[in-house]
Design a protein that fits this description.
This protein is of the alpha+beta class. Helices cover about 65% and strands about 10% of the residues.
Length: about 190
C-alpha cells in the first residue's frame, strides 16, 4: 500500500490473518489484487484463478500497474538509490543490528483492538451454501499423512489434524509437505 519495509512498519501475520487482511482491503478499496491475494491465501483456488484472470484481462488495471511502475522507476535517482542501498548494506552487515531487527519483528501480532475489529466485521455474516458444501467436502476427504518419524497414517479432516499439530493446512494440502510432514489426498 506504498509503505516501507522499515521494521516499525511491519507486522507478523499468520496465513489466516494475512488472508483476512487482504479480504478486508478488497472489501474496503475494491482492488482486484487484494481479492486475488485473499482467495489464494484462503485456499479458494477457483476464485483466486478467476480473480487473477480478471486482473490480467482488465485494461484499466493493466494501465494502472504500468503507469505506477513507470512513475516509480522514473522518479528514482540512480546515484541516490545506490547510496541508500550501500547505507542499508552497512547497517545490516552489523550483526547487532541484524539481531535487533529480527527480535523487533518476532512475535508481533494484531492488537486486541484490531482483533476485535476483525471479529466484528465477520460477526453475523452467515456462510453461503457454497462455502458450507466446500467445508463439508474438505472435512470428509481422506489423506495419507507421513509423519517426520516416517510413520504413515490415513486421516479424515486435514484441518483438525493441522490444528492439532500446529501445521499450515495450506502448505500441506497444496504443496504436499510442511515441517517434515507429507500428505497425499486419497479421496
Amino acid at each position: 500500500m506504498g509503505g516501507t519495509d522499515d521494521p516499525t512498519n511491519l507486522i507478523d501475520l499468520t496465513i489466516p490473518e494475512h488472508a483476512e487482511a487482504h479480504r478486508i482491503l478488497w472489501e474496503t478499496y475494491g482492488k482486484i489484487e487484494d481479492k486475488w491475494a485473499w482467495c489464494g491465501l484462503a485456499g479458494l483456488t477457483d476464485e483466486a484463478e478467476s480473480a487473477r484472470r480478471e486482473l490480467l484481462a482488465s485494461p484499466e488495471v493493466r494501465a494502472r500497474i504500468s503507469a505506477s511502475q513507470k512513475r516509480r522507476f522514473a522518479n528514482m535517482d540512480p546515484a541516490k538509490n545506490q547510496e541508500r542501498i550501500e547505507k542499508l548494506k552497512r547497517h545490516y552487515d552489523d550483526p547487532a543490528n541484524r539481531q535487533r531487527a529480527g527480535a523487533a519483528n518476532r512475535g508481533r501480532k494484531f492488537t486486541d483492538a484490531h482483533r476485535e475489529k476483525l471479529r466484528q466485521i465477520c460477526l453475523g455474516r452467515p456462510q453461503t451454501d457454497l462455502q458450507k458444501s466446500r467445508a463439508r467436502a474438505a472435512n470428509e476427504c481422506q489423506w495419507r499423512v507421513t509423519l517426520p518419524t516416517g510413520e504413515t497414517m490415513v486421516i479424515t479432516n486435514l484441518r483438525q489434524f493441522c490444528l492439532h499439530h500446529k501445521l499450515s493446512q495450506g502448505n500441506l494440502s497444496t504443496h504436499g509437505h510442511t515441517k517434515g510432514f507429507k500428505a497425499t489426498r486419497l479421496t
